[in-house]
Design goal:
- The chain is an all-alpha fold and 358 residues long.
- The protein has a single domain, classed as Orthogonal Bundle (ABC transporter involved in vitamin B12 uptake, BtuC).
- Helices cover 70% and strands 1% of the residues.
- The protein is built from 16 helices and two strands.
- It has helices at 2-20, 23-41, 43-46, 49-74, 82-98, 104-127, 133-152, 180-183, 192-209, 212-222, 224-229, 234-260, 272-281, 293-314, 322-341, 351-354; strands spanning 185-186, 190-191.
- The protein has a two-stranded antiparallel sheet.
- The longest helix has 27 residues, at 234-260.
Length: 358
């Protein structure tokens, strides 16, 4: 009995030591440091649970999309079109429900299918046609934004107003149906969107780290040729990651539309930089082959808390929040690269390296 307890304790200590050597541990320390600094600056205002939950809810679309973009970047690609798919999803829901008269859940399902097709289209050009991911997704961002604007023109509601009045509230004033996805509170405290986000973290974690599909995603990112020799259809794996990102953007678009009660073609148009920042800060290599859902989730929360704490505790305006976030990204990524190499960066070559061969 005692031997079992000793083995359990030893395994726990070994696991803890391994965790402290991971990038996720550094991100956890950064998150705790944020709470300590902001709490010391303004304890009463910062540590309001409802305010913290509200700030996370406002940032939840970026958090969700970044989980799925992690898959794409692990394969060595990049996806900057997700923010356009958010707006496309939103306006498709609005037009199908308001003008076409479809049931709201049928409209939501068709919008998600549309987003998946958009992801599949870009993934096809990347995986099967060999076009650079940056070029494809940049073109996709313009294409899907233009398509969203075109669809908004089919509505009787002017594009600048947005389609609103989604169902709704019951006689008791409780959020039900579609609006419950954006406004309902679990235990009268926790926003339903945070519960959905946690569920998506679990799902994507199992997909990436505990399934055969996830192992294939990593292998394609590490060495695509070796993956092909192993019998893996690397082109389908790459294409599937873009489909997943399209679906993830659609989920974010549904939740955002339900939260603000407005379907607009340009909803989420400013998300791209924050999404890529969260994924890179979370430890995913831009060259592929390395990344984690846990790291991405922690990085997204770090950015969220930073955006919440700086204006509240230090009076920094929302327009200037990109500056400290950019500085943090550069510093943290540089330090990560430094410690990963285990040596100082080489700023000047040695003379023998610069010598001209005879």
């Amino acid at each position: 009995m005692m031997g079992g307890n000793v083995n359990l304790k030893t395994n726990f200590v070994d696991g803890l030591k391994k965790f402290t050597k991971k990038w996720e541990f550094v991100l956890l320390l950064i998150l705790l440091a944020e709470f300590a600094i902001f709490g010391a600056a303004n304890f009463e205002k910062f540590f309001r649970i409802t305010s913290i939950f509200s700030s996370i809810t406002n940032f939840i679309s970026i958090c969700i999309i970044s989980l799925f973009v992690t898959f794409v970047m692990i394969t060595g690609g990049i996806d900057i079109q997700a923010s356009s798919i958010v707006g496309l999803t939103s306006i498709v829901i609005g037009v199908l429900w308001s003008d076409a008269g479809l049931n709201i859940w049928t409209a939501v399902l068709l919008a998600i299918v549309t987003a998946g097709i958009c992801g599949a289209l870009s993934g096809f050009f990347v995986a099967y046609c060999g076009v650079q991911p940056m070029v494809v997704t940049l073109g996709g961002s313009f294409l899907f934004s233009g398509l969203a604007l075109l669809i908004s023109g089919l509505s009787k509601t002017p594009a600048y107003q947005g389609i609103s009045g989604f169902p709704g509230k019951n006689e008791l004033g409780e959020f039900i149906s579609f609006r419950a996805l954006g406004k309902m509170l679990v235990f009268d405290l926790i926003p339903i969107q945070i519960i959905i986000y946690v569920a998506l973290i679990v799902i994507t974690y199992l997909m990436l780290h505990k399934s055969r599909y996830g192992r294939r995603v990593f292998l394609v990112g590490v060495n695509r040729q070796a993956a092909e020799y192993s019998g893996i259809n690397s082109r389908w794996i790459i294409m599937s990651t873009y489909i997943l990102t399209g679906i993830g953007a659609a989920i974010a678009g549904v939740l955002l539309t339900a939260n603000v009660d407005s379907a607009k073609y340009n909803l989420g148009s400013t998300f791209t930089l924050s999404i890529i920042t969260a994924v890179v800060l979370g430890g995913t290599l831009s060259t592929g082959g390395k990344g984690s859902i846990t790291g991405t989730a922690l990085a997204a929360i770090i950015i969220c808390i930073l955006r919440y704490g700086l204006p509240l505790c230090f009076g920094i305006s929302n327009q200037n929040l990109d500056l400290p976030i950019g500085i943090m990204l550069v510093v943290v990524v540089a330090l990560r690269a430094y410690f990963a190499q285990g040596k100082r960066p080489v700023f000047r070559r040695k003379e023998k390296d610069c010598a001209v061969p005879k």
